Amino acid sequence: MGSETTPELLILDFNNPGMKPGSNCWTSASKNIREAFENHGFFVALYDKISPQLHKSIFKATQDLLDLPLQTKIQNINEKPYHGYMGQIPIAPLHEALGIDYADTLEGAQSFTTLMWPQGNQSFCETTMSFAKTVAELEKKVTTMLFESYGLEKHADPHRDATTYLLLLMKYGVPNEGQTTLGLPPHTDKSFISILYQNHISGLQTMARDGKWINVQFPPTSFVVMAGDACKAWSNDRVLSAIHKVTMDSKGKETRYTAGLFSFLTKTVEVPKELVDDEHPLKFKPFAHVDLLKFYETEQGLRSQNLLQDFCGV
Ligand SMILES: O=C(O)CCC(=O)C(=O)O
Ligand SMILES: [Fe+2]
């Protein structure tokens, strides 16, 4: 793919038994998360809470879902942009995805399952909910640690209480000869945090601050934890929400599946006053998270080279 993995990317081991709130290990990991977000916009998390059985079943569930007829899949409509069915995009013909809003809750998982399988599909419902719940635990840990490392632990609880989760199940087909290898065009995520889990086929590339593309190699049992635009705005522009894309191997023979959990806020996204000072004047006005998604869908949003600046820049 023409670029190399940069050496100083953070790989953080959440399985370390010493990583308990308040411990030295936790405090130094929190600092590492903040630095990784500020320097690269993401890190790789080792987190063994997904059992081999759940690993198998989440990708089986993803495949079963994406194998449904198109008429069924397009019934997944959500008033929030990029939460429903995505696919059939001429510039990214290999990509297809479906969003399960509130996938970590029984209501969310059940209503999506019934929409796709009116006759029921208990194992799909249980698998997706269990996966979403487990990854949501990781998201909560990461945000708590990020808040703590900025000295803002008192904001962590209200933030967590206002967080909802979207599970996106994605497929990238094998490119035919002469067909584009672009799986997903370059973009930043509009989420607060995105956590990606992939099968054994890689393809994710992120753009470093210096503009170079980095191939993100992460083993199928690890996660990429990425900051979204809402996190960048909240941090008053300290955190990078990295531009990223997916490129498939032109000689590859297997479909790539990704399960991604994206966090969104039901309360106003705003810069805490502690993150504003003479050195860091306020960069962004407060906004409703869903309005950022809606702005991105407008002609101005789609054309924008600096989405946050154009949407809520001071
Ligand atoms: O499949 C991936 O690795 C990336 C997916 C992604 O960037 C997205 O859905 O926003
Ligand atoms: Fe993304």
Helix-strand pattern: EHEHHEEHHHEEEEEEHEEHHH
Regarding CATH, which class? Mainly Beta
Gyration radius from CA atoms, angstroms? 19 Å
Percent helix range: 25-40%
Structural class: alpha+beta
| CATH 2nd-level architecture | Sandwich
Largest sheet: 8 strands, mixed
Number of domains: 1
Which ligands are bound? 2-oxoglutaric acid, fe (ii) ion
Instruction: Supply the CATH superfamily name.
Output: B-lactam Antibiotic, Isopenicillin N Synthase, Chain
Mean pLDDT: 96
Care to count the β-strands? 12
Uncertain segments are none
User: Globular, elongated, flat, extended or rod-shaped: what is the shape?
Assistant: globular
Approximate strand percentage: 15-25%
Distance between the termini: 38 Å
Number of helices: 10
CATH level-3 fold name? Jelly Rolls
Strands of the largest sheet, in order across it? Answer: 1-2-10-7-12-5-4-3
Organism: Salvia splendens (Scarlet sage)
Function: Probable 2-oxoglutarate-dependent dioxygenase that may be involved in glucosinolates biosynthesis. May play a role in the production of aliphatic glucosinolates.
Keywords: Iron, Metal-binding, Oxidoreductase
Protein name: Fe2OG dioxygenase domain-containing protein
